[in-house]
Amino acid sequence: xxxxxxxxxxxxxxxxxCSGVDGAAATTDRSRSVAGDWNNLNHAAFPPLxxxxxxDEVAMAKGELPPIACAxxxxxxxxxxxxxxxxxxxxxxxxxxxxxAQEVGEVSGLTSEAIANDGHIDPTEAEGILRQLDQxxxxxxxxxxxxxxIREKGQ
Length: 155
Known about the structure:
Layout: H1 3-17, H2 21-28, H3 32-39, H4 49-61, H5 67-75, H6 93-118, H7 123-153
Helix pairs in contact: 1-4, 1-5, 2-3, 6-7
């Protein structure tokens, strides 16, 4: 799959976060047909950056990761890591280490399921495992940030 196809799928996920084409059109102040073109895998149209950010903000307001920003980061060899609030309960070291353990378990489970079918990991299964590894990496980065802050402040 090409980079543009992966980005187009991320745009579709963002549109889905907006409750579909009508919601994306309302969010971006564009027509339904324009948002429909963005959603169509066979159409070359992509949303302008300000419209992509608006749709990603809807996903984030729902507690999801911003699909377009995540896809851009991945295409550039990185990953999107949202800012955490270390004062929030779910940003504490105990919560983060549990989240990290959960993510390792998810990666292990997906890998086991993939291999159980035929002894191999096919491209579709690899994509699912990579998505879960992205979640693991985010949890690890959050935990690392909290621990580094603790180390720096001596607390």
